[in-house]
Amino acid sequence: MTLDNYRDQVYSCLRCGFCFDLPAEGNRRICPPYCAHGFESYGARGKLAAARALLDGELEIDAEVANRLYACTECGACESQCFKYLPLSEIYRAMKERVVELGWLPEVFQSFADAVKEQGNPYSKEGKDRLAWLPDRRRVGGRASVLLFSGCTPSYLRRGIARSAFQVLEALGSPFTLLADEQCCGHPFLSLGLVSQAQAVAERNLEAILGSGAETVVTPCPGCLKTFRVDMPLLLKKKLPFEVLHLTEYVAREMERGGVYFRRNPGLVTYHDPCNLGRGLGVYDAPRRVATAVPGVRLVEMPRARQAAFCCGHGGFVRAVDLDVAKESAADRWAEAVGTGAEAVLSACPACETAFLEARASTGSPVEVLDIVEFLARAL
Ligand code: SF4
Ligand code: SF4
């Protein structure tokens, strides 16, 4: 859908401001870039004003304006509070598509896009190193009912998550496989407003997954999950012949079927809801269920949890255009997590783990940072 398709919604914004500031909750600010900079143009109301101006041909774009439009972590907090239930995420994506058409995709994102196209990941890493974290290749390239799709960030930057996902599936006794030539899920293209490129990637991934014979695709990355579960059927205009689950959802389901036991690993933990997994897909319970299935674990919630969770600041590739947003949001959320008194902060997303590891390093805190998948692997 183009930005013109959203004209009515864009014009129906009431300008009430609940999308970045909640007066009923003591003016609680919910939008990371607005929190970091305090200017209205960073929040949803400002973005919709920009969309109106774009629609009316009244917005003169330059590199700074483009960067501001991309300064969004895609956390969905604005949409969850919008008084008019506007499809804000869809509008932002259409707006980015328009920015791309006008030739103002920020340069740094052009290099991400080129890397996805040429190397199959946005980090300009060699495709041949993607599975370097694997202990051996006996599960690679075969056919099985379950496919582990690791995703670019766990495969290259947070390999502890990829390795742990593999170990957890092995411990569950699942008949699973990995693609010999796994490539990006297409999430970066969608994030940047490069929808036709995302479509080409979706077609390629569909073919690869069908070739694996998988009925269930399991991933530890909420970005891949949302891309496969929500975007891929829309891009390809068809229902997919397999289900896609976050690894915590898969483990929770296996637990219900019985026979999943973890070793005792006592401790007090808190859990940060990743935006794509929580607000994006409504997955709040499975991660909590599996974390507390480890005997001796007690979970303490942060003041802003579940739908009210504050973003870690590392979504939407925002740090490439606005490092302040990434750092300040991570520091804010980290302080809240540590304030619970937990000994470990768990999340279920590789980007959140990066955010918290950096925040922890800058404070010298002894509190541990782990993905739930890593936490479970430790208790096998
Ligand atoms: S909450 Fe919705 S209607 Fe109100 S200003 Fe924000 S986008 Fe507009
Ligand atoms: S998605 Fe999050 S970061 Fe983007 S405008 Fe909405 S609240 Fe702000």
Describe the structure in your own words:
This protein is α/β, with parallel strands linked by helices. It folds into three domains: 3-101, Fumarate Reductase Iron-sulfur Protein, Chain B, domain 2 (Orthogonal Bundle); 107-254, Rossmann fold (3-Layer(aba) Sandwich), CATH 3.40.50; 261-378, Rossmann fold. It is 46% helix and 9% strand. The chain is built from 17 helices and ten strands. The strands form three sheets. Strands 4-3-5-6 form a four-stranded parallel sheet, sandwiched between helices. Strands 8-7-9-10 form a four-stranded parallel sheet, sandwiched between helices. The protein has a two-stranded antiparallel ribbon with strand order 1-2. α9 crosses α17, α11 packs across α12 (222-236) and α13 (247-257) crosses α14 (285-291). The chain is globular. The protein starts with 6 loop residues before the first helix and ends with a helix. Residues 30-33, 43-44, 47, 72-78 line the site of one iron/sulfur cluster. One iron/sulfur cluster (SF4) binds at residues 13-19, 44-45, 48, 82-84, 86.
